[in-house]
Amino acid sequence: MDIEAIEQDLSERLSKKRFTHTLGVVEAARALARIYGVNEEDAHIAALLHDCGKELSLQDMQLLVQDIPCDDEMFANGALLHGLAGMVLAQSRYGVTKQDVLEAIRVHTTGKPNMSELDKIIFLADYIEKNRDFPGVDFIREAANKSLNEGVLAGYDMTIRHLLDKGLSIYVLTILGRNDILQHMRGGN
Ligand code: DGI
Ligand code: FE
Ligand code: FE
User: Residue 97: enclosing H or E segment and its boundaries?
Assistant: First the structure.
């Protein structure tokens, strides 16, 4: 499917709120891609599809990922599983074949060590898109203007604080991803 057909399909399948968020992520991701010299069309497609699995039931997400290795914590939690399920849908329903785009969709919630620039752009755009208005979002927007790593670190810090406040489990890739960003920043990146 081309970008317009994907957008049309999502407009019919997602709630209004999720579709509006999605278009905000597209705009933010394209802007970051332009600033940081990443392929804007890849950023557009990954952003458009990043939450395409988000509104499925947990059971439908689990059906989609049944042939893919996935640990128990992710398998049991839709907040963690929707990126992987979305990646499968992006391939099967929307015909996306580019591995970098599929990977950015897969890891958009938790990140991981050694994220690509596109992975970081989708992770960050999800946070800072214009419809987001939680306390602290402007700090992440400012950090994102300094560097992708500063932005991603600020995003991780906010997520981890939120999870601690709610008494929730912190997924291992969230911790490993944050540690990896810190290490790159200490290295002068
Ligand atoms: O899908 P969105 O709402 O646009 O944003 P997202 O994909 O970043 O998902 C945010 C949700 O994921 C939010 O409910 C917190 C949850 N989350 C993110 N990292 C972790 C996590 N939940 C757990 N349990 N552990 C994590 O490390
Ligand atoms: Fe998401
Ligand atoms: Fe999102």
Answer: none
Give residues (CB < 6 A) around ligand 1: 51, 54, 77, 79-80, 108-110, 126, 159, 163, 168-171, 174
- Nearest CA to 83 out of 113, 47, 118 is that of 47
Task: Report how far apart, in Å, the C-alpha atoms of 15 and of each of 19, 54, 141 are.
Answer: 6, 10, 26
Task: Compute the distance from residue 126 Cα to the ligand 2 centre, in Å.
Answer: 7
User: Would you report the helix, strand and coil content of the chain in percent, each value rounded to 5?
Assistant: 70, 0, 30
For residue 83 the two structure tokens come to 């990126």
Can you give the pLDDT at residue 147? 97
> What stretches in the chain show pLDDT beneath 70?
187-189
Q: Which atom of ligand 1 is nearest to the CA of 54?
A: 1
**pLDDT for the residue numbered 48:** 98
Question: Ligand 1 test: best mutation among 23, 81, 109, most atoms within 8 Å of CB?
Answer: 109
Atom of ligand 1 at shortest range from CA of 110: 19
